[in-house]
Sequence to fold (144 residues):
Amino acid sequence: MNYTKPYKAMFVVLALLCHSVLADDALDRFGYAYPLPYSDYASADAVIKDVILNSHWRIVSEKPNVLRVMLSNYKGYDVVSDLKYTDNEITVNLVSHKRVDCQKQADKCGVPQKYLQRWLMTLRQRTALKLHHLAIMDAKQKAG
Fold:
């Protein structure tokens, strides 16, 4: 008897299932999308505004617990992102991206993923660094 054919088919189905699950997770969670935790030592609104003030980003609109920021005509691209915050975390969410003055189809006017990832990750890292500095200052103040 030949038992290998059912196992091959089962292996292929399992491999395809695992690939689709991992691919969906990768699309949903880029590195910049992971939440940044913080505590009562920082005001999220003030931290985000300070980070934006010292970068190429600018604030486009403000809503409760959401700041919409834009990287305007940076290296020929526009990127719009939402910085959402709750009482204990800040999250960077991509809203839109496009090449400036592009008249082609929408899918041909996007920002290359390597640039998009780098710019959003830098925004997240600067926010994390500011939170880290505030946590250290708070700990020194409480210790001392």
The chain has two domains: 1-30, 34-143. The two ends are 78 Å apart (CA to CA). The chain has a mean pLDDT of 82.
